[in-house]
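Handoff note, outgoing to incoming analyst
You'll be picking up this chain. Sequence as last confirmed:
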Amino acid sequence: MERDVVLSTLKNTIPGQVTWTMNLFFRILTYIVLPILALLGAQFSDTLGQAVAWIAQFKAGHQ
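Most recent structure output, in case you need it:
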């Protein structure tokens, strides 16, 4: 999100609005989603292991 009018003008975006780009998506993924998944994986490792095994079994059945 570019709140600065000059930066928004340079990037051809609307000031004060979020422009959903792949760059923003990967930043959200990197800085928010992955740490939360890592924390949940550390706290609930048994459940995560069961989920991964279930997904692997599901994937193997559809090939």
